[in-house]
Amino acid sequence: MVRTGRRSAGSRLAAIAAALTCVVGLATTGCTGDSDGFRPGAADAGDPYVPGRGNGGYDVSHYDLDVRYDPSTDRLTGRAVITATATQDLSRFNLDLAGLTVSAVTVADARADHRRGDGELVVTPRAGLPRGRQFTVAVDYAGVPTAVDDGSLGSGGFLHTADGAVALGQPDSAATWFPVNDHPSDKASYDLAVTVPDGLAALSNGVPGPKNSADGWTTWHWSERAPMASYLSTLVIGDYRVVTGTHAGRPMVTAVAASLPATGGAARSLARTGAIVDFLASRFGPYPFDSYGGIVVADDRIGYALETQSRPVYGPAFFTDDRPNPSVVAHELAHQWFGDSVSLTRWSDIWLNEGFASYAEWLWEEHDGGRTAQRNFELQYAATDWSQPSVEPGRESMFGTAVYKRGALAVHALRRTVGDDTFFRILRTWTSERAAGNATTSDLVALAERVAGRQLRPLFDAWLVGGSAPTLP
Ligand SMILES: [Zn+2]
């Protein structure tokens, strides 16, 4: 993510419904089935940066979503078929779902009891699901989706726009338009069919499928085969100039809001997507997904760009005065390796995403004839507040300077210490060994030490979390 706007003060208090919480090993009141060893899954992922988000007891492998959206009424109708595997003997489990009304739930084609909590859909199947059992959950739902006003973290969720809608946001947004295990630790593949009035575009992640029209409505299909964190899903509906082509043998779909200039800064920046991807691949290793693209929206409430998988979404403010902005494109595309393919396990490690994406801006700038990475490093070093840590920055600072700029400094300090050959070997080993998975800062340090054949923990500590300016390498 990159932001353009100012952050507002305040914070969201996302309460966990205590009634839904059932602690493993405790005979908590309301935990059904304890006597036979079956127990409810946890009601959140246990990540303090996103209280209430995510769930436990199962692992999703695939979301098959079929949604219909009518901009004239702002009403969304959906059916989600979720394929998951029980990771414990499961009597009951939660999905995250914000607002919307659920009309029916089935588990393995049998009607299941369901009730709602605060941002939760609680599903009780007819019979317990043994650990290791794969099952499908089908949820029929409808309603007017809502935005997420995340206080200091900015606004996202499902935004109704002048010509359609945009569903977007980090650290969470997906639960505003489909039931989901809404934490990046549970990645899954996606198929999406989205039906909108004829004439509007309906854009999402991955490879485009066929478009079918009937009775004034058009259904667009999208498929993301690589595991995707839920916050990296997006849905963009409206009047867009969509350009469909191929790059390196894979589909490339870019779209710019029709209200923005046809050959302006936004369109010219997106047109560089292929060249920037190829440059980054030469540094980071093969591009991890089977499609490319980007979407520029016109709604000023999107004051950021987000690395939605295979197809980042950019807010209009990056292209003010119609200037091109390849830097933000380089940042979001770098996330395809750092954040999207190799995803964080806990949000406190978000520097693993933003430090590398910020560093990619320096790499691209140097490649594009601008300032060298070394010069950017020196300027940033002089400007850094070393009292702010990159790791465990605190929820309110998860999009702060220490995560982005200090993270980039740490990456360049590593490069200076181990040399270019070893540095880029570390990066390529990371993106290949950890592809399609999740990782932590400790995983990165261990991998870097293994590839470099030397101790690097003190270096990472000094540059990421030390309280004073580290010695220049
Ligand atoms: Zn970013």
Automatic annotation (TrEMBL):
Keywords (A to Z) from UniProt: Aminopeptidase, Hydrolase, Metal-binding, Metalloprotease, Protease, Signal, Zinc
Enzyme Commission number(s) from the entry: 3.4.11.2
PROSITE patterns registered for this protein in UniProt: PROKAR_LIPOPROTEIN (PS51257)
Residue span, Aminopeptidase N-like N-terminal domain: 61-232
Signal peptide stretch: 1-27
InterPro entries: Aminopeptidase_N-like_N, Aminopeptidase_N-like_N_sf, Peptidase_M1, Peptidase_M1_aminopeptidases, Peptidase_M1_dom, Peptidase_M4/M1_CTD_sf
GO MF assignments: alanyl aminopeptidase activity; metallopeptidase activity; zinc ion binding
Cofactor entry: Zn(2+)
Keyword ATP-binding included in the entry's annotation: no
Biological-process GO terms, alphabetical: proteolysis
One Pfam family here: Peptidase_M1_N
Catalytic activity: Release of an N-terminal amino acid, Xaa-|-Yaa- from a peptide, amide or arylamide. Xaa is preferably Ala, but may be most amino acids including Pro (slow action). When a terminal hydrophobic residue is followed by a prolyl residue, the two may be released as an intact Xaa-Pro dipeptide
Keyword Signal: yes
Family: Belongs to the peptidase M1 family.
Protein name: Aminopeptidase N
Native source species: Micromonospora jinlongensis
Taxonomic lineage of the native organism: Bacteria, Bacillati, Actinomycetota, Actinomycetes, Micromonosporales
